[in-house]
Structure formats: C-alpha cells, structure tokens
Amino acid sequence: MKEVPIVVLDFGSQYTQLIARKLREEGVYCEIVPYSEKIEDIKKRNPKGIILGGGPASVYAEGSYHPDSEIYNLGLPILGICYGMQLINQYFGGSVIPADHQEYGKAKLSFQSDHGIFKDTTCGQIVWMSHGDKVDKLAEGFCKIGFSENSPYAAIADEDRKIYAFQFHPEVYHSVEGTKLLKNFAKYICKCESTWNMGSFAKEKIEIIKKQVGDKKVLCAVSGGVDSSVVAALLNEAIGDKLVPVFVDNGLLRYKEREQVEAMFKSKLGVDLITVDASEQFLSKLKGVTDPEKKRKIIGETFIEVFDKEAKKHDGIEFLAQGTLYTDVIESVSVKGPSKTIKSHHNVGGLPDWMTFELVEPLNEIFKDEVRKLGLELGLPKDMISRHPFPGPGLGIRIMGEVNKEDLKVLRKADVIMLEELHSTGYYEKTWQAFTVLLNVKSVGVMGDNRTYDNTACVRIVEATDGMTATFAHIPHEILENISRRIINEVDGINRVVYDISSKPPATIEWE
Length: 512
Ligand code: XMP
Hints:
33% of the residues lie in helices and 23% in strands. By secondary structure, it is of the alpha/beta class. Xanthosine-5'-monophosphate is lined by residues 327-328, 331, 343, 345-347, 389, 391-393, 433, 467, 504, 508-510.
C-alpha cells in the first residue's frame, strides 16, 4: 500500500474532503478513509499524522461513529475537528454535552501564540463554527489553547502527546486562516513534506487507469464540460484508441451546444466524438414529470440506457468513464462516511444491476478548480478549461416543473442572450457559473398597448471556488439591465426577468 502522510477519518461531514484538498494545496498527500477503517489498514499507509473529521452525529448518541481506539496508541500526532474534537475529549475521559444554542457561523478565535499549531496565524482570526454539542469537562492531560465568545473550548490540546482539537472547521473557506492551521498540523507538528502536485496526480491516475482497464475498451461519456473533457484527455493519454468517446444529445442542451462540442473535440484533442441523438427518448420519459428528484433520476437512468445500447455496438467495452467530481459525490451519497443526501447528482449512485460496466471515475476525489489545474497540466487549451460548469441533467433541471420542447426553446434563447452579455463585458471569466432558469411563474406585463401574461426568466450568476459554497455575483446593474431588456424584447413568451440573490448555503446553485 502506498505511503500516505496524513490519513483523514471520515465521520460524515460535508466538509471532510475540503481537509484533503487544503492539504493537497500545501503539497501534502492525504487520503480520506471511512471512520471504521481497521487499525492494520491505517498502519499500512505509514502515516505521520491522523485527522478526525467532523460529522452530523453526537458522540454520546446510541450507535454514534467511533474510530478504532488503537489510533490513540500509535504515538502519532492527531487533530480532531468538531465531531473529531468531541470524540477525542470523550475518549480521554472528558465530557460532551448539547450546547445551549447550536452555534453556526463566524466566530473570533483567541489564543496564545506559543502553541505551535497557531504558528504564524493571527489571534482574533475568524473561524467557522457549526456544532450542536460542546466540550463540557476537559479530558485529563488536555488544556484549553483557544476560545471564542461562545466556545470556551474552541481549541484544546495535549501537547505532550501532540493531540490537538478544534471545535471550529479550519477547512472551510470562511475560516480565514484555516489552511495555515492545517498546514501547521501537517508540516510543523507531523513533519510532512510538500511532495504532491497535479503532475504527480496525473501520472498516478494514468497508471491506475492503465492497470484497471488492461486491453479492454472504455466508453467515455463526454458532455463538453471541463470534467468529462479532462477525463477524456486522461484516458487518451492512458489508453489511446481504446477510448470510445460518446456524446449524447439528450435534448436538454444549450443553444448550438452539440455542434460546438463536436468541433472543440476535433480541433483541440484530435478526437472524433460519436454523437448519439437521444433527445426524443429523454423528452418522452420526462413528459408529465415535475418532481426534481424524479427528473434527475430519469435523466440519469436514460443516460445509462443510451450508453449501454451504444456500447453493444462496439466490441470489448467493459468500462464506463465519467467526470464525476467530489462535489457530486458528497451531495448525493457518502462514498466513505455517513453524510446526508442533498441532491442526487445524475452521475452518482452506482449503476443499475442489469448493467455490466465497471466505472472509471478518476476525478471523484477532487474539486472543480483542481480539475482545471489538472486539465492545464494535461495540455488542454484555456478556453476548454474555463467553461462554466454545466450539470449532467442540463436544462432539464433549469425548467421548473415539466420539461417540454417549447419551454426548452424559450429557455435556450434567453440563456444565450445572457451569456452573450456576460462574454462581451468580461464577466463570464470573472464568475464561476451563469445560467438562466425558466420559473414557470406567469405574471402580467404590458408591451406596447397590450397586456401580456407570460413566463418569468431568472438569471443566476454565482461566484465560487469549488461549488460547495457560493455567493451571488455582484454584477453591475447596467449589465443586468441589458440582459433583462434584451431577453424581454427578443424572447417571445418571457415578460419578466429576475436576478437570484441567494447564496449557497442555504440555497443551492441549481434550482432543482
Ligand atoms: P448545486 O446545485 O448542488 O450545484 O449547488 C453544485 C455544482 O454542481 C453542478 N451540478 C451538477 N453537475 N451533475 C453534474 O455533473 C449533476 O447532476 C449536477 N447537479 C448540479 C452545478 O451546476 C454546480 O456547479
């Protein structure tokens, strides 16, 4: 088994992968394993430190998740985060109780600078709290090393045994110096070195794909988005002509998208896509369906049916490659730990029993911005890499309620106008994602001297770094005004445009 400097135990927090990602940014390789990983398997990785992540449960609840207690006897530095802190405190004889008020949001962390974990960080730094339980009696051998207004034990440590624990989440974006704290743990306390980078990740993935695939063929589901393009490029490097790249026109694509994707693959990667027109199949299955989760499931299943049918036309295909990202995985199901489902992302959740493909998902442990770096590392051109994310279920989840051809036409027209305005003002590159949603809410308007009673388009433009959190983009009013005016003037069937000013959380980026 490969050496892993930091092993992260997953107790189900939505943020666990962010810990790994922050450490990777510092060049420290780490792996996330289920909380129940056996001590022998942890030891085989020869770690220099262990991190216990957060989780939604209470350590005192029946059936709560506990790690193999032998981890505490390995003599390795340990960092507990939130639930991980409560586990440590409980294990060493302290107590954990429900907090009077659940604490969510920003807090100011105070500490004394002589605790090494805080090296080069600021007393009073903003950290992100998200917990319902708190440490009550401190475990023996531990002392308080940091506090906030509402958390007297915001950080505790047994520095002799090099065990540290934070009540807050250093891994989330809102913990302003959180990356430094994780870096201090890995490099200063555990003495890990910075040896990991995207180049080594690419090489490793190519080797893994070669081994996994052998002399068989891989059907690669290509959408034209960054993720599947990077997967295709990785496969191209790894297995060359054993790659069968299939693009499905599901009828839920944007304006002229099919033609653009075909041309992009030909010119930039030298790859001829096999395009399957399955639009009628998708649209007929979606007829009459209004529930967002049902729509997602139908679209996901139909993709698989189409791929299966296509695969039967070629000899030797045993694998299906997809550009599933960690964000898709964590919000659908927990791969390694016990976290909660937010949405069923279409390319996650396993394959139906009748299907015999094995999955190749080389990106399922990394985030979008890391995928972009990987794409550049593989030599993909910038315009391919900087395309905004587009979800697998496409416009199907951007039309509220039932999806039909007329609404798709209307939405495409509105969406391309919005995108033209963003491109021409330079805001496309400045934002994470921009799209239009057809709300299927009718309202009264007046055009010329006539009353209208038409649909509403909602423009959603967000800023984000990984899609896990997002804020609505502060687009200048003149640009929004132009978008609105052009959509209402140029698109029949829309008489009102609204701008979505919600952030994630509590909203999500897509509407369904
Ligand atoms: P949400 O709506 O969950 O979206 O905040 C987070 C990011 O994921 C994209 N997204 C998807 N991508 N398949 C995908 O490949 C999906 O089913 C899917 N659903 C959402 C979304 O566009 C945003 O960038």
